[in-house]
Amino acid sequence: MLPSEVMKKGSTWDIFVMDAALSYENHKHDEMMKKYNNQPTETENKPLTDEKMMAAYKKFKEGNNG
């Protein structure tokens, strides 16, 4: 079944299983990318802190006003 069909016709369980399968596939892909490229993957990036977001927002606002 195609993902679009699961979203239209699937039950909650079907969607849960599809999400778990995609998450596992992404995890395995990230492992392989890290192994062969020696680079951090998207899932390894640390989340933004409030301070970093505010600093980026202020920098953006200053750039638009000047």
Your description of this structure?
There is one protein chain. With 66 residues, the chain is an all-alpha fold. It has one domain (3-65). Helix content is 74%, strand content 0%. The protein contains three helices and no strands. The chain is flat.
Number of distinct beta strands: 0
Main sheet attributes: strand count, strand direction, barrel closure: none
Tell me the span between the first and last alpha carbons. Answer: 53 Å
- What's the number of helices? 3
Proportion of residues in extended strands: under 5%
Helix content: over 70%
Shape: flat
**Overall domain count:** 1
Q: What's the Cα radius of gyration?
A: 19 Å
Q: Which parts are unreliable, with pLDDT below 50 for 5 consecutive residues or more?
A: none
Can you summarize this structure?
With 66 residues, the chain is an all-alpha fold. It has one domain (3-65).
Describe the protein's topology.
Blueprint: H1 3-9, H2 12-37, H3 50-65
Annotation keywords:
mainly alpha
